[in-house]
Amino acid sequence: MKCPFCQHEETQVLDTRVSEEGDSIRRRRRCMHCDKRFTTFERIELAMPVIVKKNGSRTDFDPLKLRASLMLALRKRPVSVEALDEALQRIKDKLLSSGEREVLSGHVGELVMRELKRLDKIAYIRFASVYKSFEDVAEFQNMIEEFSGPPSRRK
Question: Most buried of the four, 32, 54, 101, 135, by CB within 10 Å?
Fold first, then answer.
């Protein structure tokens, strides 16, 4: 920690206390060079990364927009609100734990698809059909065949 008075890099911690609110740590320090004292505070920084869209523009992460996308895919599907909330939390946790300050929108889309695949296959296909912008029916059919496995012989 640099001294704010002389910019010397060696300081000694004299006292450490948790703030009254419990959301930060207060440290009383002394500069080893100029002997002046000062106080620093440590706080947890939980900032969601900025989303970089396909066109290069940047936008703040919006959990409400993410929820709306998932709810649209899950419309009229037998998935509980609790399961939806857990999926949203897993996506947010993955974005936070990545430590990245910027994330491509495609990466967020992949995380959403992974969660939808886990929750409901129909919702997954709905979302993927829009997200992957299928050009023809064959691409859509290939995705459906992923779930149904190899074609069965009819008797």
Answer: 32
For 46, the token pair is 């939980």
pTM: 0.63
Place of tokens 């920084």: 45
Q: What is the pLDDT of residues 75-87, one digit of tens each?
A: 999 999 999 999 9
85 and 140 together in one domain = yes
> Same domain for 89 and 24?
no
Residue 35 has a pLDDT of: 95
Transcribe 101-142 into DSSP letters. Answer: SEEEHHHHHHHHHHHHHHH-HHHHHHHHHHHTT--SHHHHHH
The residue type at 113: M
Other Cβ atoms within 10 Å of 40 Cβ, number: 14
Q: What is the pLDDT of residues 105-140, one digit of tens each?
A: 999 999 999 999 999 988 988 888 777 766 677 777
Cα-Cα-Cα-Cα dihedral sign, residues 126, 127, 128, 132: positive
Residue 66 lies in domain:
50-146
